[in-house]
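To illustrate the input format used throughout this study, we show a single complete record. The first block contains the structure-token representation of the backbone; no residue identities are included at this stage. The design step must infer an amino acid for every position from geometry alone.
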């Protein structure tokens, strides 16, 4: 049933997907109380679940693996509509800094209006890059994008459900750019769908099946190829190494039906340390 609904959603034109979600959640949003920085459910395009609780959970992971301090310089790649930004508003002081960018303008506009306007050290930028799932209004490619930040500018970078929507050349460029803007020895926290013997063996019992094999990666949907992308483990590890990262942790999620590791998350997590 979920896969059928997902296919119907992907079949809609990009802008219609946003409108459909607003319409479906309109009755809920009319009467639901929410956190002052939380958007209406109909505007949220970055996954389900409790928006505030998920942000807090991942913030605790960031502190655990990223050695964050209130003065950290933080980069959120694919900042969405602010789910991960909200917990940082209560953590970073005036010497700290939070930078985020995203390919969906409505998410960036929300963040600037409701977060950036209240916290001067929080900045969000709209980056018009082509993506089959989120943005078809441009031909600009993520594979050629240079991050608008200086070298060794950040203490910590993270991507939650970003590499799950990117093609190999885009991923390669982003890893190179993350390496450039991170300080030596610092951490990038990234989520993936990673295919290895364990996840491949369990895939039929999980919530996602990647049936279209393209070599180093597989797709869930050939028509909307960036809807969900899974990568072969060896390929990801080699690409990380090529771009100057050591994979210090591989934390399995439950997306394939395999038993998740200690964090009990849906997507797989890689902790990448800049060499």
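Output of the design step:
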């Amino acid at each position: 049933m979920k896969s059928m609904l997902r296919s119907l959603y992907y079949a809609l034109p990009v802008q219609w997907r946003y409108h459909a979600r607003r319409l479906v959640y309109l009755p809920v949003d009319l009467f639901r109380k929410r956190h002052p920085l939380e958007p209406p459910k109909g505007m949220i395009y970055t996954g389900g679940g409790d928006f505030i609780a998920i942000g807090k959970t991942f913030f605790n992971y960031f502190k655990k693996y990223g050695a964050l301090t209130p003065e950290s310089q933080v980069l959120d790649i694919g900042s969405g509509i602010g789910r991960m930004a909200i917990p940082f508003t209560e953590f970073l002081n005036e010497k700290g800094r939070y930078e985020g960018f995203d390919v969906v303008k409505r998410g960036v506009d929300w963040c600037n209006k409701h977060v950036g306007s209240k916290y001067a050290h929080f900045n969000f930028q709209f980056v018009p890059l082509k993506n089959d799932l989120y943005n078809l209004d441009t031909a600009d490619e993520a594979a050629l994008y240079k991050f608008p930040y200086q070298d060794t500018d950040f203490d910590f970078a993270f991507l939650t459900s970003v590499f799950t929507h990117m093609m190999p050349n885009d991923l390669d460029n982003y890893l190179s750019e993350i390496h450039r803007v991170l300080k030596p020895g610092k951490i990038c926290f990234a989520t993936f769908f990673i295919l290895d013997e364990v996840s491949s063996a369990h895939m039929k019992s999980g919530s996602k099946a990647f049936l279209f094999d393209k070599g180093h990666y597989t797709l869930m949907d050939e028509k909307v190829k960036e809807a969900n992308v899974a990568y072969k483990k060896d390929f990801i590890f080699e690409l990380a190494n090529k771009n100057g990262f050591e994979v210090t942790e591989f934390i399995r999620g439950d997306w394939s039906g395999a038993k998740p590791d200690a964090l009990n998350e849906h997507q797989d997590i890689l902790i990448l340390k800049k060499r």
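Structural context for interpreting the output: The radius of gyration is 18 Å. Residues 14-31 form the longest helix (18 residues).
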